[in-house]
Design a protein that fits this description.
Layout: E1 2-5, E2 10-14, H1 22-27, H2 35-43, E3 47-49, E4 52-53, E5 65-69, E6 87-90, E7 94-99, H3 116-123, E8 147-153, H4 156-167, E9 172-180, E10 187-191, E11 194-196, E12 204-206, E13 214-223, E14 226-233, H5 240-247, E15 270-278, E16 285-289, H6 294-303
Parallel strand pairs: 8-15
Antiparallel strand pairs: 1-2, 2-5, 3-4, 3-5, 6-7, 7-8, 9-14, 9-15, 10-13, 11-12, 13-14, 15-16
């Protein structure tokens, strides 16, 4: 690729050889643009081919000219607010946060100013313009009532690298959960597609038309009709662990949507205990661990489980 930046901020790219798609071609170039960002820029007319609008799937030929004009960065509508964040690692590229249960990751109906993103923008104003306007820097999500580890990108380059690692399933994510019932095997995999519930659009369900989803489980302890599990996610579908557990007839303790209520527990028993990935700049392997919160640890002790095994 041959490219230059003009004094008006335009990036001009000269295609050196034929390529089947403009979006994948641009993603392979050192432009610090995510796949989704490239697609949005094409659809919104900020990327032109030989001076004309083009399609995401447009074929390229040698000597084609691509012009990229970057729209003005929109200031996030999310309110920066001082919210306690348990940061366990931070450098110029990323943060790793141990999220409390009850804290949504990003704003939504009923939660406009009490989310992780609100606190991040207070702590790191430079996150403005990193990825999504409502979810700046967010690489992956945890449900509101799930506690544990989450990584946040502090630059576009880090966001691209971490997002690609997520997409190619190179990020290690391990969880601890307590379910009602018993899985027959001590170790196994659940492979069942997940999509929107056909009757309740706020819920997810195992359906034939859903997206491929794979969950690995290992039994840690059994007792009192309950099973303590270690979960490893091989895909990252919405509500995946909760839906797969319900699908196997082992509903999650404390889960008000897919699971069963549990006296004294006002959250679902799901904790993101371990997170591993490759650092986007140093390329060093990074692994982080989080201890089980007191709210979940006390439940195990009350039930007579050995909390040290979790």
């Amino acid at each position: 690729m041959n490219y230059n930046v003009t004094n008006r901020g335009l990036v001009k790219v000269t295609v050196l050889e034929d390529h089947p798609r403009i979006d994948t071609y641009l993603f392979q170039q050192p432009l610090e643009l995510t796949r989704s960002r490239i697609k949005h820029l094409i659809v919104e007319g900020f990327i032109k081919l030989n001076g004309n609008d083009c399609k995401v799937s447009q074929r390229l030929y040698s000597k084609d000219e691509i012009t990229i004009s970057t729209p003005e960065i929109k200031q996030s509508k999310v309110i920066a607010r001082k919210i306690p964040l348990n940061i366990i690692f931070q450098d110029e590229s990323l943060l790793v946060i141990d999220k409390d249960a009850g804290v949504p990751v990003h704003p939504g109906p009923g939660h406009e100013d009490d989310t992780l993103v609100n606190g991040l923008l207070y702590l790191c104003p430079d996150l403005q313009g990193i990825g999504d306007e409502i979810r700046p820097g967010i690489v992956h999500r945890l449900d509101k009532d799930t506690s544990g580890l989450i990584v946040v990108a502090k630059s576009n380059g880090a966001l691209i690298s971490l997002s690609e690692q997520m997409k190619s399933r190179q990020v290690f994510k391990e969880y601890i959960t307590l379910v009602q019932g018993d899985l027959r095997d001590n170790h196994g995999f659940i492979e069942a597609p997940i999509g929107r519930h056909p009757k309740d659009r706020k819920k997810m369900a195992v359906i034939d038309t859903g997206r491929y989803a794979k969950t690995e489980y290992s039994v840690l302890q059994r007792g009192n009709g309950l099973t303590l599990l270690k979960i490893i996610l091989h895909t990252g579908r919405t509500h995946q662990i909760r839906v797969h557990m319900a699908y196997k007839g082992c509903k999650m303790v404390g889960d008000s949507v897919y699971g069963v209520k549990f006296t004294g527990l006002e959250r679902q028993f799901l904790h993101a205990r371990s997170l591993g990935f490759t650092h986007p700049v140093t390329l060093e392997p990074m692994v982080f661990q989080s201890v089980l919160p007191e709210s979940l640890d006390s439940v195990l002790k009350e039930l007579g489980f050995d909390a040290s095994l979790s």
